Amino acid sequence: MAQQTSYTILIIDDEPSIVTALTGLLRHHGYTIETASNGALAWEHLHAQHFDVILCDLLMPEIDGQGFYTMLQQDYPSMASRVIFLTGDTMGETSAAFLRQCGQLAVYKPCGAAEVMDAIEQVLAANNPVL
Fold this sequence. Notes:
- The chain has one domain (8-111): Rossmann fold, CATH 3.40.50.2300.
- Helix content is 45%, strand content 18%.
- The chain has helices spanning 16-28, 39-48, 65-75, 93-102, 113-127, and strands spanning 8-12, 32-36, 53-57, 83-87, 105-108.
- The chain has a five-stranded parallel sheet.
- Helix 3 links the parallel strand 3 and strand 4.
- It is globular, with a radius of gyration of 14 Å.
- The relative contact order is 0.16.
């Protein structure tokens, strides 16, 4: 049985198979998970609760990852450092330029469990320093 944590993660991705895989992996590691299929739905979650980590796809319908991140910086700036971007867009210059500019961690799909867990641990350590 996985160790229970008090951390909550929001997964924002429009690919059901990615959401299912990440949800299973992270629940197995004791995280509480919420999901949204685009930035507009994710925004509703942010008004209702706090998230320790946000895994956000870059390319989605309605509000994409870049739009979501821009809104987050404006309205919830302390949450911006908790975002890890997920992307399969390894060739797109617009996505690459955005990722360089924002400075957030990115995990490239397809990705392994260890890579996702490492990124989450980095975000948690940076945002929850040991007293």
